[in-house]
Amino acid sequence: MISRALISDHALKVLYRLRKANYQAYLVGGCVRDLLLGREPKDFDVVTDAHPDEIRAVFRNCRLIGRRFRLAHIHFGDEIVEVATFRALNDDGEGDRQHGRDGRILRDNIYGSIEEDAWRRDFTVNALYYNINDFSVLDFVGGMDDHKAGILRLIGEPEQRFREDPVRMLRAIRFAVKLGFTIHPSCADPIPKLAHLLEGIPSARLFDEVIKLLLSGYSVQTFEELRHFRLFGLLFPETEQCLAREPDGFPLVFLAKVLERTDERIQQNKGVAPFFLFAALLWEPVRSLANAKMKAGDTDVYAYQEAASEVLNRQVRSVAIPRSISLTMREIWTLQPRLERIKGLKPFKLITHPRFRAAYDFLVLRAETGEAEPELANWWTRFQEADEAQRRVMTREGGGLRTGARRSGTRRRGPRKPKASKES
Ligand code: ATP
Ligand code: MG
User: Fold this and answer.
1) Which of 202, 203, 204, 195 is nearest to 234 (CA)?
2) pLDDT tens for residues 114-169?
3) What is the domain range of residue 101?
4) Is residue 158 in a domain?
5) 121 CB under 6 A from ligand 1?
6) d(C-alpha 305, C-alpha 316), whole Å
7) Helix (H, G, I), strand (E, B) or coil at 318
8) Which of 22, 45, 247, 285 has its CA 20 to 30 A from that of 66?
């Protein structure tokens, strides 16, 4: 049973208006799936037999978007209800098909019946159509049974559907974790073998997917599943190498901690900064490379700058990190060695750096997971709370801390790997 209270007024308005103009109109996809679980959907997708121009004729607040496949966006202040025409062929939902090579792209614009529209979708539970007029759910692919059983299952032949669009492997993990569903074995089994197909996906699209995976509110479990299915290493190859080198070491403890914090913040509706997450994800590759450079004679800040560039240059081949984000990641990284300088005037200057707070938070997490000196993090905590006079004393005596490079080779063992929290 679907509670109407969970459906946005704007989506209802769009559905009624289309119906009144004698078109078919249904809610479809993620919103129906979430409504059936009693959850509030994050957005509403509507499908109709009206063509884009016809949709535009019905709504004044309508904008047509998309080049290859035209969609209508109905604007209500900052809420957008997306309206698509029933379509006959597979589509990755992003207007950016993988079939370019054999020239099938032209057929993208084929409209179809509602049933054809269902078959082109990815998972059975994503292909349910809700009719507001009689409260019925239309199901052409067995999605209701799977939904009741908590099963995520691709429509059609799994391997073929993954090959058609390998991003579906990532979507499978994301939905399974978010919904608490089980990926049907026929779909789960081929994933490790097909994981390498992600190499063929444009890195910008993978960035969008990674953001959805990490900001889902279930990033801890998502991360574990991605590693389990050997997908993580395709997204973050160098990070995976570091993790594999030290299966229980502090890099894993650190990442688990950062992801745990991220999930907590999302559950409390607090903002999460993608640059912080990405800085954490690539920290171990940058840190170990910088240490190698320091051993070879580079100064610390320079070593971090160089390591940051090299790691980022390689990383963006798989997952493109936009410059606006990578610039800040770089700052957080190169501020880490600078945070070790706590004598003289430097700390006074550093604390006014626009990224000081983020870099300090980063240091605290490193310290909590055993990779940086807790006394150093404490020193900065106290320094921020101190008044001018106290600060002068602290920077004179250096808080009794040794300064300069610490544990470039040896490092403190982190606490044992925390048991992965399995709640969903
Ligand atoms: P959410 O928005 O909660 O992340 P969703 O299921 O709505 O989940 P969207 O990416 O918004 O996901 O896509 C809407 C619908 O479009 C999906 O439910 C699915 O039916 C279809 N779809 C999206 N991406 C694909 C894809 N790669 N292959 C096939 N169908 C897809
Ligand atoms: Mg959606």
Assistant:
1) 195
2) 999 999 999 999 999 999 888 899 999 999 999 999 999 999 999 999 999 999 99
3) 1-148
4) no
5) yes
6) 17
7) coil
8) 22
